[in-house]
Specification:
heterodimer; A: 144 residues; mainly beta; five-stranded mixed β-barrel; 8 strands; 34% strand; B: 387 residues; Peroxisomal Thiolase, Chain A, domain 1; two-stranded antiparallel ribbon; 13 helices
């Protein structure tokens, strides 16, 4: 009998991924197409980021994907890290941040090419797919 | 059902590298708590071991700690990151209130020195959603830095304000023979650009804003009122145990200037104890970073939102201030052995309420408060104790 194929696409997400199998593995395919996708429950109209297949309001699992890369968010907060955990040394220094899109927020990094002194809470930013080493991908925020 | 109280408290020396193994370290605090409470292991009918996993290799540590301490009753494990042993005390309270047990040892223990600092930061960075946040390379100083940054933008907090929290901590740290960091630090050392204390860690937090990882253990022995009577002990009573959680993913937080889990745990504890903030005579708060102490003032109602910095500027939380806070040096001086921290904070308040705090004794305190937070406000725990 053929071995059952394991869908472990999520291992491609981030410098170091700690998850390989998830019901939102399609998120990684979207990254490869340049899109950062969130989900929304069509019945409750609740947006979810991080994306999830299950709605915690109606307990349904009909969430639909939508693209966030065209949307403008507001920088809620950020921190430039001088030290990092094991596995992230080559990325240092990098800046983590939270972007507020109104009906959802997004945790990620600010693009390394954005000058430090231009980064201000309240500034408008957009999310972009970012290529990392060894074919890994994440997303970064850049000024809108 | 009667009251629930604490008859014994113990703590190991907190150090960068303890000489004992996990269970041997746990025993140090257990032994002191038994001696303090004049109670033997045979009289304790349950135990709760509290730690955060993976810093050491031991799996399922509760029965092993019980075995080494000579404890025969059921053994439970409590884990809420940095607030594990406050959670342990809440569980002990419930076990006793339910009538299932009448004397419970809460043992907090953490051995962090067997792995490198960077490796422990990686573990801490996984105390969040490993699917969506850890892959960006997160660690605790950076998480709290996000809150410091937002506080600066909204309320005008400065690095100097935060440094003043560390100045207070290092006023009392040298007096604590169980603390890791016992040097005095003045404001100049903490703010001078040439000082290693101002080297950036995760902006705006700098070296001087951060507590140290440590090895350490704590133990709190919790008993029913009847058990205390039968042993002829005079306990410090547990008046309120408040606990709350907030989202693990920061993307789900409402704001980055407060920790609602601590606010809600505080409200629950005040209500249960039937006291208000004005009744608090002495407090221990979770100052893993300087910003965290200021957020605690605001969460507990010691100061209005954004005004925590005024309290430290006016020295209102010094030993002779309006509400003395962390006069044992706090986590910034003692070090932070994750699972042991809450028990150490409770030990300090128990000693204060008994009038046994020595050089750092607050004058005649009747009610004390412990604020202990797991992760960046993931788990909030507030415990109110009284004579």
């Amino acid at each position: 009998m053929a071995k059952r194929e394991i869908d472990d696409r999520f291992k491609k997400f981030g410098t170091v991924s700690f998850t390989s199998i998830s019901k939102v593995n399609d998120f990684v395919d979207s990254l490869e197409q340049g899109k950062v996708m969130a989900t929304r429950c069509p019945d409750c109209n609740i947006s979810y980021f991080p994306p999830r297949v299950d709605c915690q309001n109606c307990l349904g699992s009909n969430n639909e994907w939508f693209d966030t890369t065209e949307k403008e968010g507001t920088l809620a907060t950020f921190s430039k890290m001088k030290y990092g955990p094991v596995g992230f040394e080559d990325d240092l220094p990098y800046t983590i941040a939270v972007l507020d899109f109104g009906d959802f927020k997004m945790f990620g990094r600010i693009d390394n090419n954005v000058p430090d002194d231009s980064i201000k809470i309240g500034m408008k930013m957009r999310v972009h797919v970012n290529d990392l080493q060894a074919d890994q991908k994440n997303f970064v925020f850049k000024p809108a | 059902m009667g009251k629930v109280g604490i008859i014994g408290v113990g703590q190991s020396v907190f150090s960068r590298s303890a000489s004992g193994s996990f269970k041997e370290l746990a025993f140090e605090a257990f032994k002191e708590a038994c001696q303090d409470g004049q109670i033997s292991a045979q009289e304790i009918d349950a135990s709760v071991t509290c730690s955060a996993p993976e810093y050491d290799k031991q799996r399922s540590p509760s029965a092993l700690v019980a075995e080494y301490c000579g404890l025969n009753g059921p053994a439970f494990y409590a884990e809420t990151l940095c607030s594990s042993s406050s959670t342990g005390v809440r569980l002990a309270y419930s076990l006793i209130k339910s009538g299932l047990h009448d004397a419970v040892a809460v043992v907090g223990v953490q051995k962090m020195s067997e792995i490198s600092s960077a490796a422990s930061q990686e573990l801490m960075g996984r105390g969040t959603d490993i699917q969506w946040e850890s892959p960006f390379g997160t660690m605790m100083p950076a998480y709290y830095a996000l809150f410091a940054q937002a506080h600066m933008a909204k309320y005008g907090l400065t690095n100097e304000d935060m440094a003043k929290v560390r100045v207070k901590s290092s006023t009392y740290g040298p007096l604590n023979d169980r603390a890791v960091f016992r040097k005095s630090l003045d404001l100049e050392t903490l703010t001078s650009p040439d000082s290693k204390m101002t080297a950036p860690v995760a902006a705006p937090l700098r070296v001087g804003d951060c507590c140290a990882n440590a090895d350490g253990s704590s133990c709190v022995i919790v008993v029913s009122e009847e058990k205390a009577k039968s042993l002829s002990r005079d306990p410090v009573w547990i008046l309120g145990v408040g606990a709350a959680i907030d989202s693990v993913n920061l993307a789900s937080r409402d704001n980055f200037t407060s920790l609602p889990s601590a606010i809600n745990a505080g409200k629950a504890a005040y209500k249960m104890a039937g006291v208000t903030v004005d009744d608090i005579d002495v407090a221990e708060v979770h100052d893993c970073f300087t910003i965290a102490e200021l957020l605690a003032y605001e969460a507990l109602g010691f100061a209005k939102p954004g005004q925590g910095k005024e309290m430290i500027k006016n020295k209102e939380t010094y030993l002779d201030g309006r509400i003395p806070v962390n006069v044992d040096g706090g986590l910034l001086s003692k070090g932070h052995p994750i699972g042991a921290t809450g028990g150490s904070q409770i030990r300090t308040i128990v000693k204060q309420l008994r009038g046994e705090a020595g050089e750092i004794q607050v004058k005649n305190p009747e009610i004390g408060l412990v604020h202990n937070v797991g992760g960046v406000g993931i788990y909030g725990n507030v415990t109110i104790l009284g004579r």
